[in-house]
Amino acid sequence: MSHVGNIRRVLVTGSSGQLGAELCRQLSGEYQVTGLDTAPGPFTQVIGSVDDRALVFAQVARVDAVIHVASLHAPHRELLPKSRFVDVNVQGALHLLEAAAEHRCQRFVYTSTTSVYGRAMEPRADAAIWVTEELAPGPRDIYDVTKLAAEQLCQLVHEETGLPVITLRTSRFYPQPRELLAIHRLHRGLDVRDCAWAHRLALESPVPFGLYNISARSPFRREDLRVNANILTSKRT
């Protein structure tokens, strides 16, 4: 693919994680990629946290685009206080957005999650839920709340500064037992390689602002929702 504008140097946060590492691998052949993470990894050149404002500004000053993958995730809820989620997921995102705007980056891609839909995805009594970007989020916990807050900061900074921003609400792509993976791939699963490719497409998109769900194609159709809900209900009873 051709580069959009003059994007050559890309900062990827969370570069030691599953998605970040795959993304760096896919980009490294055509871009100068700098990986930032709190943990070492084969694609990580900078060790540090996104809530370190000075570090963030220093690194963003050297690149043309930012892909912000780093995050505290749902499993961290039992290990860390809520304030730490705010520090990393919200304040960290704001540091990156402000740095990208100040240094006139040509693209900012934010990795969010379909988990922000939360309670809105819970099936009703008579039908399952068809999830699109038009479904209003219903965050359930500190992870959902902070990811949604970062999305809103993305929109705010775009509107105030013109920074080109694309947010990707990704489905589950982390390793799971086969029986769970098979179920999730039916309605909210995603292969990490496809997830990384979606981030590259966002990086290279000319769209000034966008928010998109990223998930595997479902075998179900909208008209199946009520039928499937009835089948599930009858089996439970």
Automatic annotation (TrEMBL):
NAD-dependent epimerase/dehydratase domain residues: 10-174
Pfam families: Epimerase
Superkingdom of the source species: Bacteria
Family: Belongs to the NAD(P)-dependent epimerase/dehydratase family.
Protein name, entry field: UDP-glucose 4-epimerase
Organism: Melittangium boletus DSM 14713
